[in-house]
Write a structure and sequence with these properties.
There is one protein chain. The chain has three helices and five strands, in the order H-E-E-E-E-H-E-H. It is α+β, with helices and mostly antiparallel strands. A five-stranded antiparallel β-sheet has the order 4-3-2-1-5. It is globular, with a radius of gyration of 11 Å.
Length: 71
């Protein structure tokens, strides 16, 4: 839950949609606005597959969260 709050309003990148801003996040989903169009992804797994945080420190925290969720 702490990480979900930390990603709110952060910039992320998606290969197809390009740059976007996290507008909502909970322990299961993350919603990102790309040029005014919102798209939801599984959290944290969808982040690993589709999104990359612009902030390297935040990206590392997300990767640790993903690793911990796999265990």
């Amino acid at each position: 839950q702490e990480l979900a709050e930390e990603v709110l309003n952060k910039e992320v990148y998606h290969a197809s949609y390009k740059n976007g801003t996290v507008v909502a996040c909970d322990d299961k989903h993350i919603t990102v606005s790309f040029s005014g169009s919102a798209h939801s992804f599984q959290f944290p797994k969808g982040v690993e597959e589709y999104l990359k945080a612009d902030d390297p420190e935040l990206q590392q925290k997300i990767e640790v969260c993903i690793e911990n969720s796999d265990q």
